[in-house]
């Protein structure tokens, strides 16, 4: 009986130790992801709409033409559910 009891105690301690290591590792992963997401948010690129609007005005498109193109793209995306 002592042999089985000691094996059960050893198995329980190994299980507890394994669960503690998994918990610590996952906590570190969550912390790393949160820190990296803050850095990524700061280094986010300029949205394509602002960049394309600046390029379109430089190419000689009027604001009405740009609005019509933007509305057409929005309607296309709405119909295609992109």
Walk me through the structure.
- There is one protein chain.
- The longest helix is centred in the first third of the chain and has 41 residues, at 2-42.
- The protein folds into 2 domains: 1-44; 46-82.
- The protein is rod-shaped and about 90 Å long.
- It is an all-alpha fold.
- It has 3 helices and no strands.
Strand content: under 5%
Oligomer: single chain
Task: Give the % helix.
Answer: over 70%
Instruction: Give the C-alpha Rg.
Output: 29 Å
Q: Helix and strand string, N-terminal first?
A: HHH
Overall average pLDDT: 83
Q: Could you give a short description of this structure?
A:
It is built from three helices and no strands.
Features of the shown structure:
82 residues; 2 domains; mainly alpha
Secondary-structure map:
Layout: H1 2-42, H2 48-58, H3 63-80
Subunit structure: Heterotrimer of an alpha, a beta and a gamma subunit.
Cofactor: Na(+)
Protein name: Probable oxaloacetate decarboxylase gamma chain
């Amino acid at each position: 009986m002592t042999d089985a009891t000691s094996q059960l105690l050893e198995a329980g301690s190994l299980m507890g130790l394994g669960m503690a290591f998994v918990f610590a590792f996952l906590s570190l992963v969550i912390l790393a992801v949160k820190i990296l997401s803050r850095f990524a948010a700061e280094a986010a690129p300029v949205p394509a709409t602002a960049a394309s609007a600046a390029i379109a005005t430089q190419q000689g498109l009027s604001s009405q033409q740009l609005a019509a193109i933007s509305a057409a793209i929005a309607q296309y995306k709405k119909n295609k559910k992109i």
